[in-house]
Amino acid sequence: MGLGYDESILSAIAKQGAGNEHFAENADSAAGLIAQECGELLSQAFLSCRLKVKLATGARKVTLRNEFSHRRVGDELQIDLGGFQAEQMRALVLQFRPKPTQRAGRRKLATLEFEYVQASDLSEHTITHNVWAEVADSGSVETDIQVDWNVMTEVAIQRAQARKRQAMERLMIGDVERAIRRLRGAIEILTDVGPHMAADKRQEVIAEITALRELCDEVRVDRNRSSKMMSASLASMSRGRGRRGA
């Protein structure tokens, strides 16, 4: 609560605990946010959710674009997702780098294992799903590749969050001009995807562009407050999107 705290430390704690992060400037807003979190904790149907990404023969690397707590164990990527409410969905962006091939075709990139604990009886469960992709050969040109703009819109959202993170880091050392450049870079990323934007994400992207433009003005007035607003916004856009269910 207030402005006298280190947002980078509290953000790291929330991330490592697969938790949420909010910005409360006064006691009234803090009380409301705490009540909201308590209510959502009690309504969780699935606990200790974790996604394991095990690379298959068709891929040589996988990268997580969201800011979830994660670790690598050999070729396996483990991502802590926290708890879920019933019918809740959460956006997650995984970028695979396929192994080079001289023949185009369908390749298995990974096996996904989703582990969770059923809140009603604390029983443990695992769901497995294989990830396949049509891999182009080394001679393919860009016009031969089909683009899923629903996926690319989500990629753009997460790229914009990375720019926002850089802006926050610049603000924390007092570099306002570079912070603004990073925020404008985030706006540009989201604006560029505009003509092809997935319809169900349009309002969300427009709202984020508006918020980023407001931040560009705010950082010149109060960089401390702006940095804390950015930190909470990052948590919401990268880890918490869709958290109230679909």
Commentary on this structure:
There is one protein chain. The longest helix is centred in the middle third of the chain and has 24 residues. The radius of gyration is 20 Å and the shape is globular. It is of the alpha+beta class and 246 residues long. It has 2 domains: 100 residues, no CATH class; 92 residues. Strand 3 and strand 4 form a beta hairpin. Helix content is 42%, strand content 26%. The relative contact order is 0.16. It has a 5-stranded antiparallel beta sheet with strand order 3-4-1-6-7. A two-stranded antiparallel ribbon has the order 2-5.
Task: Please describe the structure with a list of short key phrases separated by commas or semicolons.
single chain, 246 residues, alpha+beta, 2 domains, 5-stranded antiparallel beta sheet, two-stranded antiparallel ribbon, 6 helices, 42% helix
